[in-house]
Design brief:
The complex is a heterodimer of chains A (about 325) and B (about 525). By secondary structure, chain A is α/β, with parallel strands linked by helices. Helices cover about 35% and strands about 30% of the residues of chain A. Chain B is about 75% helix and about 0% strand. The chains are: A alpha/beta (about 325), B mainly alpha (about 525).
Chain lengths: ~325, ~525
């Protein structure tokens, strides 16, 4: 495997369960050393994709590679290099948290002892309690510690922080950053936007079994538009027809010119120059909102979005 | 305390538990009335009844097992004696399981929280659970009384007998409701409920054998002292009813006062590290199956020990009473071998039951999502399956061999003569291919059609029915041949053909391999 070869590569994945089409031509590529956010609404096919990547279920069609190998045929060998936290953590009710940690650790080929001790401390886990006496959050912690303390090249985390409190969520983010610094690759499926924004280098958004968009957060931001609200003493000249401006609305209020519009990132500078000439009274510039991007990707009609579609103003699309 | 939301709660409980409750109640009624009917058919003359009564009261061992039945010299008395053992466990279990399912299980699963957030008072779920359990017990009681009357037992005596059993079930329903308040998990309700039941059984046995007041300490003793076929002491029904009411009232009171999800008895801490054995696939598989191996083994050992230690009484009864021999389905020519053959068939069914349940727990690991976690590591599917297969087969062998040794030891103690241990052990071991064949079928279902796994339980029920009742009901040969146990040859009484064992073993292996191949090819988890 060369350094540039992706850790995970899936192309045109399809998976049908009976008459249900869970995946419908999904693409996913995770590069070595990155934290890759994997987003999509409930039932979009995130867990199905992860199970195919791990060789737990077989794709109906398309191509999938894990560390350059076939996860279905070489599952056990390839698994030596990864650790996984399932979306719905279930552990043996009769074992203690500490016992479960060691049992799960053994499936990954043993845990780093120092890291195991440190993580138990950091996540404030009582390893002598039986699993059936744990809360959901504590069971989640056991699975997380087992994965984070493993000597793995790849961490596959399926909604790992559901059930964790904000303090533990913060601890989780710190540990993932540390693991990334050690050279670990992370595939992070999540619903929590803040978590993805804080951790992910790149994200893939899927909906109804297909990839909607993929790229770095900066790239995604570039495709969204900045909202501008300006109150100027004079009427800004020629703004309505300026390059990159859309949704232009203007009115006279208390002797001032009140203008609202959206603008793409590369033309912002020109427009601010025009506003300055018209003598700015107040100026509000709202940066591109990822929330809006995600909501739009989640809720819109089926079919992949292209850049031009993303570039359209949100209001106009509704 | 007002019972806000009782109607709604009754509706919810009934909807979610009606299927299980109905199956319990109908199976119990069918079994009790059916057995009563077959006993009425067998003991149809006063002479036969009299012979039975004499045989059953000759040894104290049978009194310890079935209880001292007053008025055993009557049809009702024989039914009460025959039922002594089964009724002592099944009716309390009915009360315990219905209440445990509707109280602590619901709370543990977190469903109660959603209900209590609505217009339902905190003590109402327990009240609703008790109400439904009591109704189920009442239906069982009425049906049983009607059934007995239909088979010729005097109506008043039938009613008192059925009522004494119903009151017994109520005591344990009330007890379970109280236990559900003090233990944190439904497993605790079962464990403590069954321990108290075992203690009640022992107290009743000791009291009956020593003829002392000790019997009065046991709920099972109260039912017995009602003497439905003797003096008919109706007033004794007040004791279980009062105790059941007291337990229920305490349970409702505690439920109204304690926090949701809390208990008086919590779980203690355990080891913080797993041993290297537990970390290995074989060790984890052992930990997963350990509890059920011990539980099934306990059942087989109790059965083998009881049968073995009653060997002498059994021989006397069979030699002195052809009708009794017919009731047990034996001919009376070689009583010792016949008893061993009969017991080994029971043990074989118990071992088969374990095999099906253990393979079913693999499906449980899958649906709970734990299998997915294990297979995401370096462990291959075949190694995981091999580890579990090895533990399950070992469990079957342990159940068969240990209970065979207990049977032989019990016989030696009872008859006071040396027993051929090898002969008893071999008779048990001969059933292994049949047991593994059903286990293999379960594994094939798990690997190839996991959603159809309940078919394995249906197969077990079919084999049990054919093995126990087939010869007595004179079923056609082709039907008898469907059960693998038929092909073993009823050792040590009949001859075992090595060829048959090899064929059964080969089918078992073929099914196991088909299951393994299917499991390797299918998706995990398959919902």
């Amino acid at each position: 495997m060369t350094a540039s070869q992706p850790v995970i590569r899936a192309q045109g994945l399809t998976k049908t369960f009976g008459s249900v089409r869970a995946l419908d031509g999904l693409d996913l590529e995770v590069a070595p050393g990155e934290v890759h956010g994997f987003l999509g609404p409930n039932g979009a096919g995130k867990s199905t994709t992860i199970r195919i990547v791990l060789g737990l279920i077989r794709a109906s069609g398309g191509h999938v590679e894990l560390f350059g190998g076939d996860p279905w045929r070489q599952a056990a060998t390839l698994h030596e290099r990864l650790a996984y936290v399932a979306g719905d953590v279930s552990l043996w009710p009769g074992l203690t948290g500490g016992q479960c940690l060691d049992v799960l650790g053994a499936t990954h080929g043993g845990l780093d002892e120092a890291r195991r001790t440190a993580l138990i401390e950091r996540f404030d886990l009582d390893p002598t309690k039986r699993i059936r006496d744990y809360s959901k959050g504590n069971r989640q912690k056991v699975a997380l510690i087992a994965a984070l303390a493993a000597d793995a090249e790849l961490l596959v985390l399926d909604e790992p922080t559901s059930g964790l409190d904000p303090l533990m969520e913060q601890a989780f983010q710190e540990v993932v950053r540390e693991r990334r610094k050690d050279g670990c690759t992370v595939l992070l499926s999540s619903h929590i936007l803040g978590e993805v924004e804080a951790l992910a280098d790149r994200v893939t958004i899927i909906r109804r079994g297909r990839t909607v968009t993929t790229g770095t957060l900066a790239e995604l931001r570039r495709h969204t538009r900045t909202h501008v609200h300006a109150v100027t003493v004079d009427e800004p000249a020629g703004l309505a027809d300026a390059t990159g401006v859309a949704d232009y609305v203007s009115a006279r209020l208390d002797g001032h010119a009140d203008s609202r519009f959206t603008i793409d990132a590369e033309h912002l500078d020109d427009v601010v120059g025009t506003l300055h000439t018209a003598r700015i009274h107040t100026l509000t510039v709202t940066p591109p909102s990822l929330d809006a991007l995600f909501l739009r990707s989640y809720g819109g009609d089926a079919g992949p979005l292209d850049a031009s579609e993303l570039g359209e103003p949100l209001e106009a699309a509704r | 305390m007002t019972a806000t939301g009782l109607r709604a709660m009754l509706g919810v409980q009934w909807r979610t538990h009606r299927r299980g409750t109905l199956v319990w109640v109908l199976a119990l009624i069918a079994m009790m009335v059916g057995t009563a009917g077959s006993i009425a058919g067998l003991y149809n003359t006063p002479e036969k009844i009299h012979t039975y009564a004499q045989a059953a009261t000759t040894g104290e061992a049978l009194v310890a097992v079935n209880g001292r039945v007053e008025g055993i010299d009557s049809l009702g008395g024989i039914i009460a004696d025959e039922f002594g053992f089964l009724a002592a466990f099944l009716l309390p279990l009915l009360g315990i399981s219905l209440v445990a399912l509707m109280t602590r299980s619901e709370e543990e699963a977190g469903r109660l929280e959603a209900v209590l957030a609505g217009r339902v008072a905190r003590h109402v779920p327990v009240l609703a659970g008790l109400t439904i359990a009591s109704a189920a017990i009442a239906v069982t009681t009425v049906a049983f009384a009607l059934g007995l009357t239909a088979f010729g037992v005097p109506a008043t005596r039938s009613v008192l007998y059925a009522a004494s059993l119903g009151a017994l079930a109520l005591v344990f329903a009330g007890l379970a409701a109280l236990l559900a308040q003090v233990t944190l998990h439904s497993r605790g309700v079962y464990t403590w409920g069954l321990l108290i039941l075992a203690a009640a059984y022992v107290l009743r046995g000791v009291g009956d054998v020593t003829r002392t007041w000790v019997t009065w300490l046991s709920p099972l003793g109260w039912a017995e002292k009602a003497a439905p076929f003797g003096d008919m002491r109706w007033w004794t029904l007040l004791i279980p009813l009062a105790v059941a009411g007291l337990f229920a009232a305490l349970a409702v009171l505690v439920a109204g006062r304690r926090d949701l999800g809390s208990a008086l008895v919590g779980g203690g801490p355990g080891p913080a590290r797993a041993t290297s054995w537990l970390r290995s696939p074989l060790g984890l598989a052992t930990a997963i199956h350990r509890f059920s191996i011990l539980a099934w083994l306990a059942g087989a050992v109790i059965l083998a020990g009881t049968m073995g230690s009653l060997a002498q009484q059994f021989i006397d009864a069979v030699l002195g009473n052809p009708a009794m021999a017919a009731a047990f389905g034996v001919s009376g020519a070689q009583p010792v071998d016949e008893m061993v053959a009969l017991t080994q068939l029971y043990i074989a069914i118990i071992a088969t039951g374990f095999a099906v349940q253990a393979v079913g727990s693999l499906r449980g690991e899958e649906t709970a999502g734990r299998l997915e976690m294990q297979l995401s590591g370096r462990l291959s599917r075949l190694r995981w399956l091999a580890a579990h297969g090895l533990v399950i087969v070992t469990g079957v062998v342990i159940i068969v061999l240990v209970s065979s040794v207990v049977l032989a030891a019990g016989m030696a103690w009872s008859m006071g003569t040396p027993v051929d241990f090898g002969r008893v052990l071999w008779a048990g071991a001969a059933y292994l291919p049949a047991e593994l064949l059903v286990g293999g079928l379960a594994l094939a279902l798990f690997g190839l059609r996991p959603r159809a796994f309940p078919a394995a339980w249906a197969a077990l029920a079919g084999v049990t029915f054919i093995a126990f009742l087939g010869p007595g009901l004179k079923l056609p040969n082709w039907l008898l041949d469907l059960a693998p146990t038929t092909h073993i040859g009823n050792p040590p009484l009949g001859t075992v053909e090595a060829g048959q064992l090899v064929v059964l073993g080969a089918i078992a292996v073929a099914l196991g391999v088909a299951g393994a191949v299917g499991f390797r090819r299918r998706g995990v988890p398959q919902s």
